[in-house]
Amino acid sequence: MLGTYFYHEIIRKTIIGFGTLFNNIYIRHLNKDGSIADETKVGLSYGPTQKFLAKIQQQADLSKPIAITLPRMSFEMVALQYDPSRKTSVTQTFKACDSEGNIKKVYMPVPYNITFELSIYSKLNDDALQIVEQILPFFQPSFNLTIDLLDSIGEKKDIPIVMDSIDMQDDYEGDFNTRRALIYTLRFTAKTYMFGPIADSTDGLIRKVQTDLYADTNTQTAKREMRYTVVPDPIDAEPGDDFGFTELWEDFTDSKEYSPTQQTDI
Amino acid sequence: MALNPFFLQGSSNEQYLVQDLINEQLKIYGIDVYYIPRKFIRTDDILREVETSKFDDNFIIEAYLDNYEGYAPGSDLMTKFGLRLKNEINLVISRERFEEFISPLMNGRQVGIDDGNITDYEVELTNRPKEGDLIYFPLGQRLFEIKRVEHEKPFYQLGKNYVYELQCELYEYENEDIDTSIEEIDRTVEDEGYITSLTLGGIGVTATATASIDTGIVSQIILNDDGAFYSSTPIVTIAASPTGNPSDNATAVAITTSVGGVRSVDSIRLTFGGRGYDISNPPLVTITGGNGTGAAATAVVADNGVNQFTITNAGENYFVEPVVTVVGVASTAAIARATFNPITGTVTGIQIVNSGFGYTEAPTVQISSGSTVSVGGTYVYGETVTGSLSGTTAEVRYYNLRTDLNVINPPGELRVAVNSGQFSAGEAIIGSASSATYILKSYDNDNYQESYDTYDNNEEFETEADQILDFTETNPFGEY
CB distance B174–A123 less than 8 Å? Predict the structure, then answer.
């Protein structure tokens, strides 16, 4: 019943948009005199991966000399939920042009919330605090991303990324055979939209707008006296072109009216 | 109830004998490992953490490997942070050997600190092996961190303990300085951590250019109003030359600047001064486009000034703007600025700020050399390199001359770690030990992705996001 193939990569794009917010965060360590000892860009990755790929990429040398490099950040999508608060009419459509100028008909998008968990794994509390402090001020509690969700028709949507909660885990207690694990988990909701299939529209482009003006509101008796007509300039301009308009004002004293069916004055 | 005084529970001689036997057994059945003490560079007393450490000492000591069945099974874990190894080993070392061999040397460091001769780090607990120190395990070529030191196992045989058991787990690396002078140890982190790449220029070639003079040229464009709110560089148009020949029309470009987020026109430079213009009736200058408003300028016409520079050799290794000097006899000397491509390192053009006037013959053009330092040498692994302008320091992890790219003048590929900041193109990168010096052509501050651990996807996110994200203003989290 559903059956029409389409795939706009909307969730993937939302993942990319979310990820790029956190891909340029640095931490610093200082020398005893306060000068910078080292500056590290915090590695970020989408957590879920194929196990064999992780093994061959991250342990190409089987005798890997260390346990892991830190600090690291990882995020993953943990939930998808319909958002009724942003619901629009299910039958409403809008039209847009694709890159070739064809008119497309698209149903209004369906609002969905995607929940993300961003995890920060560090060796030192100070590292984690440096990272977290570089993130938090930008979420009040949301930060808007403008994402080209449907690139075929250039449909950009503002996607608020809302910070929901911050949890931290610092397992410093216990025996000395267990390492301290310092993980901050920031939970976000991305308020994105799901689009259905993009259909060809049978409607043509509006290339001419004509408005008749009357001296009386009683259109049974009144006749049009002025006409305002607008056409694009040049007349064969496409929606993507940088075109202007040609306006025309006409006065009439012939007591005629425009017939939409015959498309002439009678 | 006191012990029977007619029996000894362990005389000194018996204890020495046991210790000697243990030492001998360790030397026969043990393996050599390297004990690498942690030096505390900076400690946070509030959060109670050693923020910065370095490991630059090493002590070889025999140890019994108490893992006859190897590492515990299932010690490589798939986590949300990628692969994490949990290999553990237990090592038994002689208490006497540690106290007589390692402790005195570490005590020497402590004395140096107490005397004020060592000021850049602290050491703690020099009389015993301590948690947080590293063990280099040569059989597996791995770095382990001591998690716990067991000192009472076996439990007071003949009234004394003779060994330390070091319970170790693979080290979690965070760009610490590991510079033990044992290359095998130092190279364990060769491909680990945050590694950035520098492309270094070879020997510079000085660019050359010629100048031509003419009469009735547009000698300069005076900016009367710098305008505001430009989102791109506006187009400058100069009215056509009265000669009617299109090839005589002067051309110019706008140079914009941003102050407080507002982009305006900073200056206008001529790319061609034209010819045949009327000195008493300068051409009209119009500034259009760029989505801004308000910029306005007027032209000045002069005779016998430089109306064009022609690059005859684009040179090599220009990563900062070279200085252009116009040498010739004139009433007023010409002033020019060079444009260059920091990626290719070549001079791309010379623009006229003021053409000067009164030249009787075409002046000569001098372009400063791409690099004022003599370049050469070979960087060595582990040495510190310093950027001559930025002052940024880093440790060399890899260096190679890319003869596959240019046989005659090959660029250098340098990978470094433990950076103290960012390097900037155009500065000299100087090796502390090798004195190798080259000019930095470009700097990639993304983690080098062909190292063994390719966890990071920072760059991939940025590349993909550039296609779909619309940061009309700026990305507050920073852009590459």
Answer: yes
Instruction: Say if CB B83 and CB A59 are below 8 A apart.
Output: yes
Chain B nearest CA to A258, separation (Å): 42
pLDDT of amino acid A254: 85
Cβ contact, residue pair A67, B167, below 8 Å? no
Rounded to the nearest 10 degrees, the angle between the axes of helix A10-20 and helix B458-468 is: 120
Please check whether residue B75 lies inside any domain of the structure.
yes
pTM for this prediction = 0.77
Q: A240 falls in which pLDDT band (50, 70, 90)?
A: low
pLDDT for the residue A63 = 81
B40-44, Cβ contacts within 8 angstroms, sequence gap of 24 or more: B40/B121, B40/B122, B40/B123, B40/B124, B41/A31, B41/A32, B41/A37, B41/B120, B41/B121, B41/B122, B42/A29, B42/A30, B42/A31, B42/A32, B42/A37, B43/B122, B44/A126
Q: Are strands A68-69 and B172-173 parallel, antiparallel or unpaired?
A: parallel
User: Total domain count for chain B?
Assistant: 1
DSSP-based three-state secondary structure for B355: coil
Alpha carbon distance B282, B229 (integer Å): 28
Q: Is residue B168 in some structural domain? A: yes
**Average pLDDT score over residue span B171-192:** 90
Report how far residue B72's alpha carbon sits from residue A164's, in angstroms, rounded to the nearest whole number.
40
- Smallest CA–CA distance, residue A42 to chain B, in Å, is 8
Task: Kindly give, in sequence order, each residue whose CB lies less than 8 Å from that of residue B70, ignoring residues fewer than 6 positions away.
Answer: none
Lookup result for tokens 């790219």 = B405
Q: Which two tokens stand for residue A120?
A: 């920060």
Enter the ipTM: 0.79
B427 belongs to a structural domain: no
* Residue B365: both structure tokens together: 């053009």
Residue B418 Ramachandran class (φ > 0 left, ψ -120 to 50 alpha, else beta): left
Euclidean distance between CA atoms A155 and A96, whole angstroms? 8
In this structure, is residue B411 part of a structural domain? no
CB A64 within 8 A of CB B85: yes
* DSSP assignments along B78-116, one per residue: EETTEEEE--EEEEEEEHHHIIIIIHHHHHHHHHHHHHT
Of A13, A54, A179, the CB nearest to B83: A54
Confidence at residue B477, expressed as pLDDT on a 0 to 100 scale: 59
Domain, as residue range, for B89: 12-184
Q: Using alpha carbons, select from A180, A229, A234 the residue that is nearest to residue A208.
A: A229
Alpha-carbon gap, residue A58 to A40, rounded angstroms = 19
A64: nearest CA partner in chain B = B142
Tell how far CA B154 is from the center of its chain: 50
